[in-house]
Design goal:
Elements (H helix, E strand, L loop, with lengths): L2 E5 L9 H15 L3 E7 L7 H7 L8 E6 L8 H20 L10 E4 L2 H9 L1 H4 L3 E5 L3 H11 L8 H17 L2 E4 L2 H11 L5 E3 L19 E5 L8 H7 L7 E5 L7 H11 L6 E4 L7 H5 L4 E4 L5 H6 L3 H8 L4 E4 L2 H4 L9 E3 L4 H12 L2 H14 L5 H13 L3
Parallel strand pairs: 1-2, 1-4, 2-3, 4-5, 5-6, 6-7, 8-9, 8-11, 9-10, 11-12, 12-13
Helix pairs in contact: 1-17, 3-4, 6-7, 9-15
């Protein structure tokens, strides 16, 4: 049984997909027999471990410990809070690494946060524990398109992008192993920084239930689950509904304190589909099944961007496949690694409401086709369970020098 320490610079639990991916990975490793310590931000008002895991539909496990580390009070400047916590996180990892072998010393640090990995590599001569960097994007490429994804953000200066590229390369080459979630990202890393023998593709996962998933679909109901940022492409599916008068759209996600929910509600009203679009703001991950069971088909209308083409591996696709819901997804390289058009789903050109509506209509009008695609997807998704992900990560850790 290996001891894996997973340090993260985020509050816990959290509403975003990255926290779902992290806790599901840690919980699967624990179920597989590894001892896992998840280090997260503390602070006043944080709920306990049982409640935190229940937020994700998980139960406590004897091999999983969630340790909340102190953070500066909210009144402190954001940069000071972040830097202070990263320092605390580094010291906590160092303290655990000084435990004698055989008494709980970590076999590896596993991390996906760039700032955390920078700290771990800076301290490696002291802690001498292998660092596995789970990369979900290439930061300097993200900076180059950030103003396109977030219209309120100004373009990032070229000098800053170049500095970030140097950091990216240093982390890529410095980690003891690198894990990425798509083959497209792996190829881009090789093209940008060169190949390395310990570069692995380990896709995201999904929780599989035994037997047939519970389904009670409502007629012609399209579901979208996830955040509502403009770069998620949800506008495209709202516009597609104007071409599907027989259908209604259920959107589950979005945070009340962010502007995207109001923006999409206004769009639905402006184009005359407000009566056929139901908005359900964020619900805990453990409560999503009831909403998924209502869906006839799910849509993941990602726009065409560097992020979507190469970096994305949406949990919502795997979850729809596991739930027995046929999927219509944007036709992008990273998506084609999982979804095959006409075999286990449908692909539609990104950013095209009319094409998306055509693909959705084909499934809504042909239940036999929809059922066949969903059945094949349900079989395929068995390859993407959290258990399989944990087994692959364990192989990587066991192969470290």
């Amino acid at each position: 049984m290996a001891h894996i320490v997973y340090p993260v610079n985020l509050r816990f639990p959290m509403e975003r997909a990255n926290s779902i991916q992290i806790i599901q990975t840690c919980h699967a490793l624990a179920r597989a027999g590894d001892r896992v310590t998840l280090l997260v931000r503390g602070g006043k008002g944080r709920i306990g471990e049982v409640e935190s895991l229940a937020f994700y539909g998980l139960n406590p496990h004897r091999n999983l410990s969630i340790v909340r580390l102190p953070v500066l009070p909210p009144a402190a400047p954001a940069k000071a809070r972040n830097r202070g916590f990263l320092a605390t996180l580094g010291l906590s990892c160092l303290r655990r690494a000084l435990i004698p072998a055989g008494q709980g010393r970590p076999a590896a640090f596993l991390a996906r946060d760039e700032g955390v990995v920078r700290g771990l590599l800076a301290l490696r001569s002291l802690h001498r524990v292998p660092v596995v960097f789970e990369m979900h994007h290439i930061s300097h490429l993200f900076l180059a398109i950030r103003h396109e994804m977030y219209p309120d953000s100004p373009p990032v200066p070229e000098a800053q992008i170049e500095r970030q590229k140097s950091i990216d390369e240093r982390l890529y080459r410095g980690a003891d192993a690198v894990v990425c979630v798509t083959e497209a990202l792996r190829e881009m890393l090789i093209e940008t920084f060169g190949d390395r023998p310990d570069l692995h593709v380990v896709r995201n996962g999904v929780h599989l239930i035994e037997g047939e998933p519970r389904r009670d679909p409502e007629p012609a109901t399209i579901i979208y689950v996830g955040q509502l940022y403009a770069w998620k492409g949800v506008d495209t599916i709202v516009r597609a509904v104007t071409r599907l008068p027989e259908a209604k759209l259920l959107i589950v996600g979005g945070l009340p304190f962010e502007p995207d929910l109001a923006r999409l509600e206004a769009l639905a009203g402006a184009i005359g589909v407000a009566d056929r679009v139901e908005f359900r703001p964020f619900v805990p991950h453990g409560e999503l099944a009831a909403y998924m069971a209502r869906a006839t088909v799910t849509a993941v209308p990602l726009p065409d961007s560097v992020y979507s083409r190469y970096f994305t591996s949406p949990l919502k696709i795997f979850e729809a496949m596991a739930a027995g819901i046929p999927v219509v997804v944007s036709d992008l390289p990273a998506i084609r690694e999982v979804i095959r058009d006409g075999d286990n789903g449908r692909l539609a050109p990104p950013g095209d409401p009319e094409a998306l509506a055509d693909a959705l209509r084909a499934l809504l009008a042909d239940p036999a086709l929809a059922a066949a695609l969903a059945a094949r997807a349900r079989k395929d998704v068995e390859s993407y369970s959290w258990e399989r992900r944990a087994a692959r990560l364990r192989e990587i850790v066991e192969g470290l020098p």
